[in-house]
Amino acid sequence: MSSPSTLYVVATPLGHLGDLSTRAVETLRAVDTVAAEDTRRTLGLLASIDAHPRLLSYHAHSGANRAEALLAVLTAGRDVALVTDAGTPAISDPGHELVAAARAAGLTVVPIPGPSAVATALSAAGLPGDRYLFLGFLPRKGVERKRLIERAAGEAWSVVFFEAANRLPELLDDLAAACGAERHAVVCRELTKLHEEFRAGTLATLSEHYGETAARGEVTLVLAGRGDHAGEDEPVADPAEIMAAVRAGLAAGESRKDLVRMVCTRFGLSR
Predict the structure, then answer these.
(1) Average pLDDT, stretch 50-60?
(2) Do the Cβ atoms of 174 and 228 come closer than 8 Å?
(3) Dihedral (CA of 19, 84, 11, 145) sign
(4) Most buried residue among 118, 143, 204, 206 by CB atoms closer than 10 A?
(5) Rounded Cα gap, residues 265 and 123, in angstroms
(6) H/E element holding 81?
(7) Cβ–Cβ contacts within 10 Å for residue 263, how many?
(8) What is the DSSP string of 192-254?
């Protein structure tokens, strides 16, 4: 280990244990304590590498007392490794709060890089990954979900989502309504696992498929940016189509403020 009182942020496999790095193995064997999103799942990983640290839970519903307990371990001069269920901690989980607290306390934070569902999905989706927007898990409903979907619809770059398998059809339907049914996307399922699947197509065809065939396992969705339909430019919207959207919004009782935002996002227009 490089120094005492260090918080190690350790990436763990998405599914295939062979993806655990040598450095991650050495770190997990050496630290005093591992803070894990799901201790039962992490216990199996630790057993597979003959690592026997103290195991404490640290997840989205952990109270402030658990973070304080982990900081106490660190300030006492003992190292802690932060892990999530799969992939890189602090990406769509509460790990960043512990990292921020450790830095605020003057402690050393060292990342141990490795698997990431975001990077893995982008690498095999066949959509541009030089620039992308990561939105993680969307709220299940409400204004914020609508706002983020509108943001995704107007984004020029690829957009990456996490979603629960049983809610995938609803996400595909909502995106099709905002982006247009012909926008392309790739559903990346069970990454690095036995039943790994990449299914590419339009939002309409994907929605139809997963409406009839339920998805299982972990899902990462990559949405093509505006103008990137399998590498071809998206047609410029017809003014008549824009006006039709405006009239439809007014008829549905949308406020002018919300309607302006929605139309500008959908068609890539300035206010």
Answers:
(1) 94
(2) no
(3) positive
(4) 206
(5) 27
(6) strand 80-83
(7) 19
(8) TSTT-EEEEEEHHHHHHHHHHS---SEEEEEEPPTT-BTTBPPPPPPHHHHHHHHHHHHHTT-
Helical segments of 22-116, H only = 22-30, 39-48, 64-75, 95-104
* Model-wide pTM > 0.85: no
Name the maximum alpha-carbon separation found in the chain.
68
Half-sphere exposure of 135 (CA within 13 A, CB side): 23
DSSP string, 143-165: HHHHHHHHHHHH-SSEEEEEEEG
pLDDT of amino acid 110: 98
The 10s digit of each residue's pLDDT in 76-128 is 999 999 999 999 999 988 789 999 999 999 999 999 999 999 999 999 999 99
Listed as own residue / partner, the contacts of 36-40 with beta carbons closer than 8 Å and 24 or more positions apart are 36/83, 36/84, 37/83, 37/84, 37/85, 37/89, 37/93, 38/85
- Sort strands 184-189 and 218-223 into parallel, antiparallel or unpaired: antiparallel
- Exposed e or buried b per residue across 36-66, where buried means at least 16 C-beta atoms within 10 angstroms of its C-beta: bbeeeebeebbeeeebebebbebbeebeeeb
At residue 189, the 3 state secondary structure works out as strand
DSSP assignment letter at 142: S
pLDDT (tens digit per residue) in 147-201: 999 999 999 999 999 999 999 999 999 999 999 999 999 999 999 999 999 999 9
Which segments of 61-94 does DSSP mark as H helices, in order? 64-75
pLDDT band, very low/low/confident/very high, at 62 (cuts 50, 70, 90): confident
Distance (Å) of CA 104 to CA 33, 45, 193, 242: 20, 30, 38, 50
Pairing of strands 54-57, 132-137: unpaired
**159 alpha carbon, distance to own chain's centre:** 10
